[in-house]
């Protein structure tokens, strides 16, 4: 099967352009790609991004919502920085980590639901990877809820996209009986759930 570039060259030549015109067009495309890559690596821009990344904790303290928008717009190359920020950079400040992750889960809820459901019925590598990331976020979110917002645990873990076994273990370890009962109920063990509720 001919490449896209080959098809473009054939089509262009068929339209009456000279071969030199095609080569020139190809050269322009290359220049544009190089320019885009150079802009990404433009030293002042890279330095600015690095400076902003050093201030993420302070920015998140001011406004998690605006910080998340900043990350999504400018700093989240290949979707890796967001993950690094939540799992590592903010882990030394769990109260800020909790607030940031709460905003993240609320903002991404539709995508989380979609990815979790799709990865069950159509397991594809990119979905599996994204699903794994979301599952880890939800487990961490459950732990932080148990620590910082106990009354909301049961509401969240009742959502069917929260992983039952892992979140159940978190609730047991954190001594959150309402969350534990809700997850035991979701696993289908009704009698055990009632016993936990009645404790």
Feature tags:
2 domains; 80% helix; single chain; 199 residues; mainly alpha
Write the topology of this structure:
Elements: H1 4-14, H2 19-40, H3 43-54, H4 56-62, H5 64-75, H6 80-87, H7 94-121, H8 125-148, H9 153-157, H10 164-174, H11 177-186, H12 190-198
Helix pairs in contact: 4-5, 7-8, 8-10, 10-11, 11-12
Description:
The protein has 199 residues and is mostly helical. The longest helix has 28 residues, at 94-121. The protein has two domains: 1-41, no CATH class; 42-198, no CATH class. The protein has twelve helices and no strands. It has helices at 4-14, 19-40, 43-54, 56-62, 64-75, 80-87, 94-121, 125-148, 153-157, 164-174, 177-186, 190-198.
Q: Could you state the order of secondary-structure elements as H and E?
A: HHHHHHHHHHHH
What's the total count of β strands? 0
* Poorly predicted sequence stretches spanning 5 or more consecutive residues: 1-15
Helix content: over 70%
Q: What fraction of residues sit in β-strands?
A: under 5%
Arithmetic mean pLDDT: 82
Largest sheet: none
Q: What does the overall shape look like?
A: flat
Radius of gyration: 24 Å
In angstroms, what separates the terminal alpha carbons?
68 Å
Class from helix and strand fractions = mainly alpha
Number of domains: 2
How many H/I helical runs?
12
Short description:
With about 200 residues, the protein is mostly helical. Helices cover about 80% and strands about 0% of the residues. Residues about 1-15 have low confidence and may be disordered.
């Amino acid at each position: 099967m001919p490449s896209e570039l080959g098809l473009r060259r054939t089509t262009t030549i068929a339209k009456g352009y000279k071969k030199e015109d095609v080569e020139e067009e190809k050269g322009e495309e290359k220049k544009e790609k190089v320019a885009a890559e150079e802009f990404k690596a433009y030293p002042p821009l890279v330095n600015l991004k690095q400076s902003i990344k050093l201030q993420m904790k302070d920015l998140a303290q001011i406004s998690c919502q605006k910080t998340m928008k900043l990350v999504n717009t400018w700093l989240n190359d290949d979707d890796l920085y967001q993950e690094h920020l939540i799992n590592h950079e903010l882990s030394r400040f769990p109260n800020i980590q909790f607030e940031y992750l709460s905003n993240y889960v609320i903002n991404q809820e539709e995508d989380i639901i979609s990815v979790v459901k799709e990865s069950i019925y159509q397991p594809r590598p990119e979905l599996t990877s994204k699903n794994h990331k979301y599952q880890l976020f939800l487990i961490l979110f459950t732990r932080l809820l148990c620590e910082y917002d106990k009354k909301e645990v049961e509401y969240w873990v009742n959502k069917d996209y929260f992983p039952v076994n892992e979140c159940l273990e978190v609730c047991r370890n954190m001594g959150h009986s309402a969350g534990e009962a809700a997850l035991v109920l979701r696993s289908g063990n009704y009698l055990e759930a009632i016993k936990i509720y009645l404790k």
